[in-house]
Each structure stands twice: as structure tokens, then as C-alpha cells.
Amino acid sequence: MSYNVREHSYVVGGLGVTGQACVRFLLQHQASVKAFDTREQLSLPNDLAQTLKDSVTTAELTKSYFDGVDTLVLSPGLAADIAQVRLAKSCGVEVIGDVELFARLNRNLASPKKVVGITGSNGKTTVTLLTNHLLNACGIRSIEAGNVGRPVLEALESDADVIVMELSSFQLETTSSLLLETATVLNISDDHLDRHGTLENYINAKHRIFDNAASAVVWRDGEFVAPDEDAEQSMSHIVEYGLGESETGFAVASIQSVDTLVYNSTPLIRLDAIPLAGTHNVLNVMASLAICCELGVQPQKAIEHLASFKSAPHRCVEIANENEVRFIDDSKATNIGATVAALEGLGASTQGRLILIAGGDAKGADMQSLAPYLEKYVAHVFAIGKDAPQIAAVFTRTSQCHSMQDAVQGAIALAEKGDVVLLSPACASIDMFKNYMHRGEVFKHEVESALAVDNEAQKVVS
């Protein structure tokens, strides 16, 4: 069915990055648009402030606001049950997200772009960026979009043939007709329960990614990651991967006593030659290779370009190494599952002790589920933020700190040769920082400042 934006009247809900991109796109395509935002104080770029003028409101909405409106395009940062959305629905207004708008417009193109969808509690940005890198390196014009940062409507108008789309549970909630070449739910752990209410609701939102997918990429040993029976029946096939042995799909085999990543039993690369640290990143590499397979790229060819991939900031990135103490920024670990992955991934390769800086807004998650991993891998925790007391309650070797500066200084004072100081918060950052990037930048600044002071002190002593 043809979908022409000029034939519809839109309200865009929420004017963050996604909402602004929606407004620009709709205005460029001569649609009727107005917008609301839930923040009382709103600052817009000059072009939008001039273009929208009186078409933006931060006031309480009334039914008359939705007169003549066909569609509310809701930003993923706004929950689907807020008063403005309930009011829109009561007025007969359809509620979708920018990904659903993309899906409808993509089908209208003479040559629709191929789309792959990646979701999960952890690792989805790494898999999205790595997949995009491998595809481009192998000669397929690809672009990343979605939760990774680039609004999907911008990608629609690019010259790419393939869009590698990172999708959050919030985006999937308002998506119903996105056609995917392949889809994957990388993993599931407690996250965003403050928004979804229950783990079941969260899983259901994630699994919407399979509804219109031609195939699936599935972690063989993961819980809640496989499509249900109805979704699977509509797919052409499923590619599996995992850290154990298997004759099919991606697996690990011991070849001449060396653990090796294999595909259908064919060796691809030694695990110790993979440039991304940790077993969680071995799984991420497998998922990316599997997605590339679904787009016609042989894994033997894709693996040649793994070494040239640059990992995204704030995702298990070493930011300093002083006196044989490594400092690692994993600020993107905004939930317990991400921190568990980092602890398991680094624990096996760390000669000394792991000293963890964690804490923030737990988003309703129970820190008790982190406790076994703290006991197994961590020597001491320096806890910050709103839910620092939760960490202290489940792990006795915890010092509660008022600031990142206090936490970093405490960790440096404790660290010895061979140790790793790891920022992997297991929590959101919004209680203390602008976002997880800001948190990581503050961590790096405090590490560099503290090390500089230490070095100066040593010069004085000597």
C-alpha cells in the first residue's frame, strides 16, 4: 500500500534528537506538522525554532489539539502511556515511532533498502557498528542508524543499499511493519523495568523485532533470545552461534589445543587473535559475522577486516595504563547484564585484581543479581550515585563515594601492579551526569588528573 506523508497530518511528540529529525523530514516532504514536548524549558536549533514558530507547545494538551491530526510520531524517550499519548489515542490518532514511519516509506521506494535489525540488553551498539564496518569493507554500501545515534529517517535518504539498524525496546514498542532481512536479540537481562514494568513486557517488546524478519541470528545458549514458534515458521532459516562446540553455525573448537572461532566447522580465527577484549566480544563478533552471512558475505572474507575495526567509545576501552595498572572505561554498561559481561570478559584475562567503580540509577533493577559476579571477580567496589546503597547492601567490600573524583582516587590508592580499575556502572547515568558519554568523559578526566598528581608527587620525593 502506498504511503504519502503529504496526505497526512502529524504531531511529533518529544523534540530530542529523534523528534527533531522527524520534524525536519516531514517538513522537507511538505507534510503538516506540529509538535509537543514534556519539558517546560525547551531549546531548539535556530532552523527549527524559526520554522516551527508557534507550532510547538510545552503546555498541557486538550482534545482540540488533535483535531485533524492523523498520526502522532512518538519519540522513544517518551513512554507510550503518558497523558498526551492516552489523549491522542482517545481522539482516534494513530501512534507510531520514527522506525515505523521509516518502514512505511521504505516500502514505497522503487528499490527499498535492505534492513537488518539488532536489539538486546547489551552489545547491540558494538554489533551494529562492527556489522556496518564489515559490510562496507566487503564492498556493500551500508550505513548504521537507529539507537546507535543516526536517526533512521536520515538513513532512508542516504545512498546506502543496506541499513544496519540498532533498535531499543522503546523503539520496537511503536513499530509494527518493519521488514528485515535478518533480526537478532543478542541477549536479555533485567533492564528498563521502570518503564516496562515486568521482565515479560520487556522481552515482548524486544521480540517484536522478529515479527516481519526473513531470518534470525540466535545465540545458541541465550535465554529469551530465540523467535517464538509463530515467528520462526515465517522465516527462511536461523543461523546460530555460541561459545561451545557445534558442527553448524558459529562455534568455538579446539584446534591443535588452541580455541578457535569456526563456521560450519571451518576455522576462521584464533580467539586470542580477536582484537576486542573479553568473551562477550567473541559473541558479538559471531553475531556480526552471522548477519553478514545473511547479506551474502562469506565469513572467511569478513573476518579479514576485523582487525581494522575501531571500538566505540565507553565500551570496555582502555583509557590509561600507569604502573601496570589498566584503567578501562565501560560507561556504556547501563544495566546489570552489561556489567556482568564486562566482569566475565575481563576476569579471565586479568592477572591482578578487578577494582570496580559502579552505581547510578538502577532503573528498578535488583542489584542482588549482580552479587555473585562481584564475589567471583571483584576485589573492591567504589559505588557512586543514587543506588550506591543497593550495591553496598549486597557486597560488603564496597565504599560509597560522593563523586567520581572520590571513587577514582580511592581506586588508585588501592590498585597495585597487574590490577584493573574498571568503570562499569550497571546503572543509568542520569542521576549525576548528562548521559553515559559524559560519565565516561568525567571518569577519564579524573583518572588523568589523579595520575598527574601522583606523578608530580613522585618527582618531588625522588
Description:
Helix 5 crosses helix 11. The mean pLDDT is 92. The protein has helices spanning 17-28, 46-52, 83-90, 98-108, 124-137, 152-156, 169-173, 193-196, 199-207, 229-233, 279-294, 299-302, 336-347, 371-377, 388-394, 404-414, 436-461; strands spanning 9-13, 32-36, 56-57, 71-74, 94-96, 114-119, 142-146, 162-166, 182-185, 215-219, 237-241, 250-255, 258-263, 266-270, 317-322, 325-329, 354-358, 378-383, 398-400, 420-423. The longest helix is centred in the last third of the chain and has 26 residues, at 436-461. 35% of the residues lie in helices and 21% in strands. The protein is globular. The protein folds into three domains: 7-96, 3-Layer(aba) Sandwich (Rossmann fold), CATH 3.40.50; 100-305, UDP-N-acetylmuramoyl-L-alanine:D-glutamate ligase (3-Layer(aba) Sandwich); 317-456, Protein-Tyrosine Phosphatase, Chain A (Alpha-Beta Complex). The chain is an alpha/beta fold. The strands form five sheets. Strands 15-16-20-17-18-19 form a six-stranded mixed sheet, sandwiched between helices. The chain has 17 helices and 20 strands. The termini are far apart.
Structural class: alpha/beta
Distance between the termini: 78 Å
List how many beta strands DSSP finds.
20
What's the number of domains?
Answer: 3
Low-pLDDT segments: none
Summarize the structure.
By secondary structure, the protein is an alpha/beta fold. The protein has 17 helices and 20 strands.
